Amino acid sequence: NSGKSAFCKQMAVTHLKNQYVYSVFPPVQCSSATEDFSKAIAKATQKRGDAVQVLGRVPTGSTIIINDLELFWDKANDGNEVIRLLTKLIDQYSHRILFIININPFAWRLIEEPNQLRQYFIEEIAMMPFDAEELKNLILHRHRSSGMSVSFDSAEEPLSEVQLARLFNRYINYSKGVPGTALGGWLANVKKISGG
Questions:
Q1: Per-residue b/e over 71-81, b at no fewer than 16 CB within 10 Å?
Q2: Residue 45 pLDDT more than 90?
Q3: In degrees rounded to 5, what are phi and psi of residue 92?
Q4: Helices within 132-192 (DSSP H only)
Q5: What is the rounded CA–CA span in Å between residue 55 and residue 45?
């Protein structure tokens, strides 16, 4: 909900201009089993086989985005199997595939140190929470793209800057600056759609 997946996809498509971008998502029930990780990679790439076989078949210059890596990990029960497989895949294929991994920062601290993952990455980008102005711009841009106007407490006239500031301060407090949470809260508070 913090926008990590969207940021990674946007980065790969827009800035890296990679034609082949595959987004790997964890299973709904989370799993630290390498078989489930392989299935997720196969699903994203629409190729058959285990992770090693599949990545051997993707075109050179591809980007593999591993979303929410922490959901492929378990603190107990040797939950590092996927992490070990991922480092093996990076070792084996990074000369022809760009790996972008996103992960919750708290889980990163728990996973990184014992597995010494930093050595496998060019850079780390920390996603900071939005401030009230950034949330306001994001939400209003998305809202206005729908063609709808905004009213507050059933008032028909446009919101004043003071009303907007008060409203978006509530969203910053509610969401802690997390864009997905704020957008979800905004949609949940739509009471009436009319006009048009």
A1: bbbbeeeeebb
A2: yes
A3: -80, -35
A4: 132-144, 161-175, 179-188
A5: 9
Question: Is residue 3 within a helix (H) or strand (E), and if so which, with residue range?
Answer: none
DSSP string, 24-74: E---TT----HHHHHHHHHHHHT--S-HHHHHHHSPTTEEEEE--GGGG-B
The structure's pTM equals 0.76
Amino acid letter, 10: Q
Residue 162: CB partners within 8 Å, gap ≥ 6?
none
Give the Cα-Cα-Cα angle 134, 137, 139 (nearest 5 degrees).
105
The answer to whether the CB of 127 falls within 8 A of the CB of 4 is yes
Q: Is the pLDDT of residue 177 over 90?
A: no
With a pLDDT cut of 90, the percent of the chain lying above it is 39
- Rounded Cα distance between 110 and 112, Å, is 6
Angle made by CA atoms 54, 59, 60, in degrees to the nearest 5: 115
Residue 16 is predicted with a pLDDT of 77
Kindly list the strands in the beta sheet with 62-66, ordered across the sheet, starting from the edge strand earlier in the chain.
21-24, 62-66, 97-101
